[in-house]
Amino acid sequence: MKPRIGRILAGATALAATALMMSGATASAQTAPSDGWDHIFNPNSPTGSGVRVYVEEYGDVVSVCDSAKDGKSATAVVTDLGYSGREYSMTVSSGYGTCKSHRASDGGVYNLHEKNYVAITYWAKGGDNYAEYYNDH
Q1: Distance between CA atoms of 69 and 71, rounded to whole angstroms?
Q2: Which of 82, 124, 125, 133 could form a disulfide with 116 if both were Cys (CB 3.0 to 4.6 A apart)?
């Protein structure tokens, strides 16, 4: 029995569409994360300062999100207060409701020390905001 070209093309098209959808999950302009995070900084002021920061200790995931329709970029500086005092920053300039994230698996400065304090400075409009948490995972 000969395979029909239409069936082959349909299968190839479905496979390509699935691969394209799966690769889109790693886009740099992510949408705002849902609740269930270990820490959410600035949760009660969704438009007050224009920035919201989410932290998941397991995996050292830190997301900064733009929370205001004001054209300002949201920025966060994450400082590992322990052994080295190393830090990194990330800026979201892709607009309201979008986020940027880093995690331990990104390596280097993104892999924060466990059993240690981490400081976050974040801003979009207005003055700086500060937060600190104990990274026990």
Answers
A1: 6
A2: 82
